[in-house]
Amino acid sequence: MNAAGDSFAPAVRTALLCFVLALSTSCATATEPGTVDLAAPAGLAAQADTQLVVSVGSLLPRNSLVVVKTPSGETVGTISPFGVRAAQAGGQYALPLPKTAISAGRLRLRLEIVQAGAPPRAPIAGEIESIELKSSPASTSK
Questions:
Q1: CA angle, corner 127, sides to 56 and 108, nearest 5?
Q2: DSSP helix/strand/coil, 18
Q3: Average pLDDT for residues 1-16, to the nearest whole number?
Q4: How far apart, in whole angstroms, are the C-alpha atoms of residue 37 and residue 27?
Q5: Does 5 map to a domain?
Q6: CB 129, CB 89: distance < 8 Å
Q7: CATH number, domain at 21?
Q8: What is the mean pLDDT of the segment spanning 25-50?
Q9: Contacts of 106 (CB under 8 A, 6+ apart)
Q10: Is 94 in contact with 133 (CB distance < 8 Å)?
Q11: Which strands form 65-69's sheet, in the order they lie side by side?
Q12: Can you point out the beta strands (E) in 49-102?
């Protein structure tokens, strides 16, 4: 944490701005509410295991779910923050991605916030802080 009490790294701040405001096509961009388009990491091997890392913000309402889907509606994963206190960051959650999720070096996803008694909706600023792709060499089974 720096002297100003800001614990966010510049890269996280940049990713947040790109996601929420869709300022640049070189990072995460939102083309419609709740939709995010990510560029795959340079040199991503087809054999690599890829995860989507979602940082949940402090403004996500209690007992809410974050549902991540492909454009066709297939659920990639669901995030259910538990025990997050008011004004506290919700944490980071990794969702494994199927190898078919990335096409032509891009990943397009739809995020929905689900709350009891309300229809699913797109996240608003402060509910999702950042979204990024991480890859590692493919695991082998014995």
A1: 75
A2: helix
A3: 42
A4: 8
A5: no
A6: yes
A7: 2.60.120
A8: 70
A9: 37, 38, 39, 40
A10: no
A11: 35-39, 106-114, 65-69, 75-79
A12: 49-56, 65-69, 75-79, 91-96
> What is the maximum alpha-carbon separation in the chain?
50
Calculate the dihedral angle through the C-alpha atoms of 57, 58, 59, 61, rounding to the nearest 10 degrees: 100
**Is 70 exceeded by the pLDDT of residue 29?**
no
Residue 20 contacts residue 125 (beta carbons within 8 Å):
yes
Considering only residues 33 and 88, tell me which one the structure prediction assigns the higher pLDDT: 33
Residue 1 lies inside a defined structural domain of this protein = no
Examine the pLDDT at 104 and tell me if it is beyond 90.
no
C-alpha to C-alpha distance for 119 and 133, rounded to whole angstroms: 28
- State the Cα–Cα distance between residues 10 and 13, nearest whole angstrom: 5
The two structure tokens encoding residue 111: 């995020």
Q: Which residues contact 43 (CB under 8 A, 6 or more apart)?
A: none
Residue range 40-90, pLDDT digits in tens: 877 666 667 889 999 998 888 888 999 999 988 899 999 988 766 666 667
Structural domain count, the chain: 1
**In sequence order, what are the residues at sequence separation of 6 or more whose Cβ sits closer than 8 angstroms to the Cβ of residue 124?**
59
**pLDDT (tens digit per residue) in 84-103:** 666 666 789 999 998 788 88
Q: Does a structural domain hold residue 4?
A: no
